[in-house]
Design brief:
The complex is a heterodimer of chains A (about 350) and B (about 280). Chain A contains 8 helices and 20 strands. Chain A is of the alpha+beta class. Chain B is mostly helical and about 280 residues long. Chain B has 13 helices and 2 strands, in the order H-E-E-H-H-H-H-H-H-H-H-H-H-H-H. In chain B, about 30% of the residues are buried. The chains are: A alpha+beta (about 350), B mainly alpha (about 280). Chains A and B meet through strand 6 and helix 2 of A and helix 8 and helix 9 of B.
Chain lengths: ~350, ~280
């Protein structure tokens, strides 16, 4: 059992607060992605769990052991680093065996584990090479194999795919997901790439300004953002936001009346994802500014009462800049946010 | 013209090296093999048959064998400390490097002031009542004290040069390697021996070659502390050149120093060689 519990973990570097009392529980064998822009505290949180950084306060539990006072090697973790950290002076075999050697494991068991993980990562033909003779993608595989060979309870990954080119990243994404699911470990995976997060995670923790804004399944994070930040950060293009004012019988948004939250301040924000918008006979009047035909669909950037408004339309519709469209949101996909607290309203 | 330009730009430096290094070197080499205008090995025979030669030769090697390992260990320790520091790093580096700014003769004299009969060590021991009257530490009767004093002075004087090179080398090792080793179970000592040291090989090479060559050229410190009680190769070279006025034998001594320097340099290069594929 390797459930990870993070209780009130905070970290300051001098006067800068990198983490504000974070609470998070990661279930045994769960694939948790920490997602956020650079500087949001996701790497700091990962390094605190790894033991490479000491929290200013708070507790970290792995299984039934409190680990925040323990050195990394006593935490039952393995880690994949952003720049791989594949030792240049050791062969691929010795790199994968490094952690096993430190545990003084018998040679036969070292051979067995290195061979098995190398086969799993498809690098068995590279075992005699040095890291200087490997491509970035191969080094990445060695780094993952080295972590898997430890058969750890927890694998921590710090942006492991960010240094690979786009095509390789897509390939490794699917492969990593399969390998990690089969390994029965709890995984914490840090990334700033939302596609990576969405495609790999059981749950995503969206971080912003040293706080976890929302921790939920990818679909939940996408469909029901708990905060305005989540809606604007996840999704490409991001959510559309329009100001809404209380009116008799609902909320007035750009001249249209919508049913909405009852318990709310007088001025709130209306939000809709660009793909939840379709041309209709009644709806917002939008002035087209830019049209981007993307193949599967057409991305239209328009203006609704002076506010930026994007819509993902069928690839058959090719309006011209300056055209006026009538666009209607899918009613049950409309979300509302409080501009004061930034939180979602229901 | 552009093709010749690089060579043209290298010409002044090449000329300088040729005139002031290569030519005198060839001159010395020729001097060592010329006697009375004839090519001969007489100078070498004379040198080798002199009763002081073997002592000077082994003393020089012994000094290097004692001083260099101590300096290496200390330089590695000091560099590790300096690298770990977050504040006051450069201040400490400057303090460690102060002895570098003192000439070797001055360094020898400083340690002479400590060890001589009316020196600091004797006054302290007398004041404390450990001894009744000053002891003659640096006498021909206890050469090992002379050796100890020379080793101390050399370590004190020239450890920083190794440290500076090693600090620079340690700065080049990305932090992630140490962290990876830490996560994968290496203790502090294992991180040092399994990660830092192997990745430090190029800097160790430079530091060791520099230090070993300087150790074979040890002279002023030995003269200050041991006078003629502790003969070394460089001292004998000086003695034959200026006291004996025998240029040929002095040149032969110089060639011996050159020979062991080259030999040890090759050994160090070989031992600390990093194959191309295993470089960072």
């Amino acid at each position: 059992m390797a459930e990870i519990r993070i209780r009130g973990v905070a970290k300051s570097f001098g006067s800068f607060t990198a983490l504000h009392e974070v609470d998070l529980t990661i279930a045994d064998r769960e694939f948790m992605v920490l997602l956020g822009a650079s500087g949001c505290g996701k790497t700091t949180l990962l390094r605190i769990i790894a033991g490479l950084e000491t929290p200013t306060k708070g507790e970290v539990w792995i299984g039934d052991r409190r680990v925040d006072g323990l050195p990394p090697r006593e935490r039952g973790i393995a880690m994949v680093f952003q720049n791989y950290a594949v030792f240049p002076h050791l062969t691929v075999f010795e790199n994968i065996a490094f952690g096993l050697r430190m545990k003084k494991m018998a040679q036969a068991e070292v051979d067995r584990r290195v061979t098995r993980t190398a086969e799993l990562m498809h690098i068995e033909q590279l075992l005699k090479r040095y890291s200087g003779q490997l491509s970035g993608g191969q080094r990445q595989r060695v780094a993952v194999a080295r972590a898997l060979a430890m058969e750890p309870e927890v694998i921590l990954m710090d942006e492991p795919l960010s240094n690979l080119d786009a095509l390789l990243r897509m390939e490794m994404r699917a492969e990593l997901k399969g390998v990690l699911a089969a390994s029965n470990t709890t995984t914490i995976y840090v990334t700033h790439d939302q596609v990576e997060a969405m495609s790999m995670a059981d749950r995503i923790s969206v971080m912003n300004g040293g706080r976890i804004v929302q921790a939920a399944s990818p679909v939940e994070v996408y469909r029901n953002p708990a905060a305005r930040f989540v809606g604007s950060f996840i999704g490409n293009p991001p959510m559309n936001f329009l100001p809404a004012t209380r009116a008799p019988g609902g909320w007035e948004v750009a001249g249209r009346l919508f049913p909405g939250p009852a318990n709310a301040p007088d001025r709130i924000e209306f939000a809709i994802r660009p793909e939840d918008i379709a041309p209709a006979s009644e709806g917002f009047t939008a002035t087209v500014r830019v049209v981007e035909p993307l193949g599967p669909h057409t991305l239209v950037t328009a203006e609704v009462q002076g506010a930026l408004f994007r819509a993902v339309l069928d690839s058959d519709s090719l309006p011209n800049p300056g055209d006026r469209l009538t666009l209607a949101p899918v009613p049950d996909r409309v979300r509302w946010f409080d501009p004061e607290t930034q939180k979602a309203l229901t | 013209m552009p093709r010749a330009l690089p060579y043209l730009l290298l010409l002044p430096a090449t000329l300088f090296l040729g005139v002031f290094f290569l030519y005198p070197f060839l001159q010395v080499a020729a001097d060592s093999a010329l006697r009375g205008g004839e090519w001969t090995l007489d100078n070498y025979r004379r040198m080798a048959s002199h009763w002081k030669f073997s002592t000077a030769f082994w003393n020089t090697l012994l000094l290097a064998a004692l001083v260099v390992p101590i300096q290496l260990a200390m330089a590695l320790t000091m560099a590790s400390v300096v690298t770990k520091l977050e504040a006051g790093r450069s201040t400490l580096l400057y303090i460690f490097a102060i002895p570098l700014g003192i000439s070797d003769l001055a360094a020898g004299l400083i340690w002479l002031a400590i060890f001589e009969q009316s020196g600091f060590l004797n006054s302290i021991l007398t004041t404390l009542g450990v001894i009744d009257q000053p002891v003659l530490f640096l006498s021909y009767q206890n050469t090992w004290v002379i050796l100890l004093a020379i080793v101390l002075a050399e370590v004190w004087r020239a450890t920083a040069i190794m440290m500076v090179i090693i600090v620079a080398g340690m700065g080049l090792i990305p932090k992630e390697y140490g962290e990876a080793a830490e996560v994968f179970g290496a203790s502090r000592w294992q991180r040092f021996t399994r990660v830092t040291l192997p990745m430090l090989k190029p800097s160790l090479q430079t530091a060791l070659i520099l230090r070993v060559i300087l150790a074979f050229e040890v002279f002023a410190v030995v003269v200050a502390l041991g006078g003629t009680q502790f003969p070394v190769l460089m001292g004998e070279t000086y003695h034959w050149q200026f006291t004996m006025q025998d240029r040929g034998v002095a040149a032969a001594f110089a060639m011996v120093i050159l020979g062991i320097s080259v030999a040890f340099t090759l050994v160090i290069l070989r031992l600390l060689h990093v194959p191309k594929e295993a470089r960072v």
